[in-house]
Amino acid sequence: MMKKYILLLISALCLFYACQEELIGVSSVAVDKERQDLSIGASFVLKAIISPSNADNQKIIWTVENSSVVDYVDNQDGSATIKGLKVGTSKVTARTDDGGFMSSCNVTVGVGVEKIELDKSELSLKKGESASLKATIFPENASDKSLKWGSSDVSVATVDAYGNVKAEGNGEATVFVSSSDGGFTAYCNVKVGTSVTGISLDPREFTLETIGSSFTIKPVISPEDASDLEVVWESADTKVVSVASDGTVTAIGPGTTTVTATTNDGSFTSNCVVSVKSPAQHVSLDKTSLKLLEGESGKLTATVYPLNSTQKTLTWVSDHPDVASVDNEGNVTARKAGAATVTVKVAEKVTAVCKVTVISRVTGISMSETTVELKPGEKHQLEATVLPQNASNAEVTWYSDKESVAIVSQLGLVSAVSTGEATIHVVTSDGGKMATCLVKVGTPVKGITLSISSKTLYVGDPSLDISATLTPANATDKSLEWSSSDPEVASIAPGAALHAVIKPLKPGKTTITATTKDGGFKADCEVTVKRHVSGVSLSKSSLNLYVGETESLAATVAPEDASDKTVSWSSGNSAVASVSKDGKVTANKAGKATITVTTMDGGFTATCEVVVKCHVSGVAVSKPELTMHVGGTELLTAVISPADATDKSVTWSSDHPEIASVGEKDGKVTAKKTGKAVITVKTADGGHQASCNVTVLEPVVYATSLTLTSQTSSLNIGESTALTLKMLPANADETLVWESDNESVAKVVNGDVTAVGVGVAKIMVKGKNVTSNEVTVTVIDKFAVTGVKLNESEKSLQVGDSFTLTATVLPEDARDKTVTWSSDKESVATVKDGVVTAVSPGTAIIKVTAGAGAFSATCSVTVEERIIEITEISYPEDNQTINLKMGESYTIKVKVAPDNANEILKVSPAINCPVTWKRDKVQGTPYWNVTVTAIYKEGRGSLAIDSKNYSTQCFVSVTKVPVTGISLDVSETSMRVGQTLTLTSRVSPSDASIKDVIWESSDKTVAYVSQSGIVTAKSGGKVTITAKSKDNSSVVAKCVILVRSDNVGAGGSEGVGFIEW
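Given the sequence above, the corresponding structure tokens read:
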């Protein structure tokens, strides 16, 4: 029957589906790219192709393997736009919704090429020569660095895949290189020409008769069809002749030199020997007049013009050799007083003269007097005598060294001005000879003052110095007379100069007086003499007081006639005993204190030791009620008030000692028989009392056996159980002590056990004479923590951001859900109650622990600097042109706003901008330093300095400083075969853009030169080493070397000169 129903159902289903329209399903899918390379930020469209194309369900589901490397946008048309995010690889997969068919594209994201540069923009080659070009791709970390090389004219120059250029034929061609990524291109212009084979000059010798005259040398270059006909002219001595670029030679100065022409191509040379003549035209002397003393000598120097004249012979003559003679070197000697003319002659009509005067010198001077004494207003005439009497110049000058004291006229008349001493000087104009006279002018006393007008002294003090000041200070007579109005109080003794000494003798007052001998002027000093304190004593050296009591102390200052008897009082412990300013002592609390009195004069002290006692105010018994058993004992304690009472002695008593007795001194109570008694304690100080009511019961029956049993051996935390105790004898009534050996696991009170924490505890009970067996209790926790987890395992934040981590303690019904949070780097990120706050850039591990630290989970937090975008950019060069020379650097100081912006400043030179750049943030400021360096290529381009939201640009123009000359440190030398020599070139001007030179040898079989200027002698012969400017091939310098054939060791330095050669 069941089979019948099944067959009917199948038939019905077949009939149903036969009536439906048939659907077309997907059989496969394929993406149009299996691999794709991308730059960061670039994108491409990836298309999925479904088979069959007429499938009903065309839906594609896109996924990426590594979303941090690439991202995608579903275009909803069977394609997706893929964008590169960061360097790396990822797989992009297209999966059909119908059937789940998949196809993938492997995407590699790298750094794109931004520009390409060649190390040379120009090359000059001869047919058959080769050179290498080096291409540099920017940035350095570009992913695809593959290159393509080519030439615009392979009949002129070819280039291989490595940048090696070969000159094929005469002409010009452009070699270029392009990056596979981006198609950036750089160019180099290549020139190929025919080499020069030699040069000769016409004429080979020439003589110029006068300075300034000139002639032209004609160069003849071989072969006639040479490509480069340029030559470089050079004069071996530019002080003799100069040579222009067209071969015109001009006479500069007399002499003979060589003019050399060097071909720009091949550095072939040819010489012309040129001679220049120059006659004398004028002669001059360095002095036209000369004054000498008898016996002195002088030097005359003659200069012939022009300076390069070939006539240099001089003739010297004096018209009066008896007055002044002259030798052949122009040395003039003074013979006697008079005048003479010295003449120098270089040719018959070319002469110069010097007038010579010989004079007689002053040898000394004397004065009529050496000392004169005058009074203010007086005058005196002095006379001076100059020696010798026939001296040429007898003039003298008079002066005083102190015109405030005395002045002198130029005729020697002295006038006294004021008191003091002055020296009169007379000095000869010739030779500065000097004579002097001392003038003394006296001054009277006009007043007196003392250094002290009043003073207080003490008997026994050191003597006091006092001094007088006279008016005027320069008074002539400074003698004084000192006196004391009461010599018994203080004496006065004269001292040095205007000083005296006051000595105090006894208490009192006196007047010290100083009187001038000149004029009798007086000055006084009032002196008061006192006596110092020598000690102090107290009326009592010790005191015994009770709290609240007072007593006054009296201080006696010695000696009785001491001037200052003022004292001060102090307590060493004011809390125990204080003291007033008049010596009254107040007892404050029990203890000891030292009262001190101190004299104001001298600081002498005396002390009194104070002992403060405290009365008892009450007493209490440690136990007011006490129950005991016959034969038992208890110790009672008396509690005295206040606690610091001095006398704490007590007496104990019992009103019924036959029931309960007590120790009179120690308070030990002994139960004698059943009943009640009152135990009383009484203080010795004040008779204060307190009592304890004692009840004595029958004797205790002690247990002889204790046995414990338990209903269960295992408890959950928080559960309780009662232990069963069997105690023998049955009438035992002693108090038992219950114990647990681990109360952190289980506690017991009178046999009731409570589970506290996981573990094992042993329970027992103790009597006076017996201990029970141990019962073991095991405590478990069915709600114990088994783990902890976090809702996130990693997180990225910016500084200042925060987020909340959620910790879940397992199991969910765990008893202890307490968790502890921590950060391994709080300087990067902090955490509190799960709230994580980003502090500074870096990585921190946030950790949560549960189960008392047994379980933990972590989350890695990466903190990045918060990007504060640049809203404004300013710098002086904005929209201006910066002019640079090749190789020169320039720093643009760029200011951004706001000041705390940390967005990275973008610098982007245009493709044709001939500079490299570097940017640096000036820490702690809103400034960036953008340094641009001109490459070795002339041109102009723009430089963009941008941020995300702000754009600026400036322009850079690069020019070349051309080379105008080269010099070598050696122009000619000799070597032996095997030797080496390093030549050093110097390019001018010093700031030339391209300082590189090309070294060439005229005969490499004789000597070879490296591109570092190192010459190696190969074989005997003559060779020319040429340094040619890489910037301008027509600028050269040469060194001629003679190589001797006898060998020396390699690297040797012995040479041979031209003459020896």
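The two ends are 136 Å apart (CA to CA). Try to locate this feature in the token string yourself.
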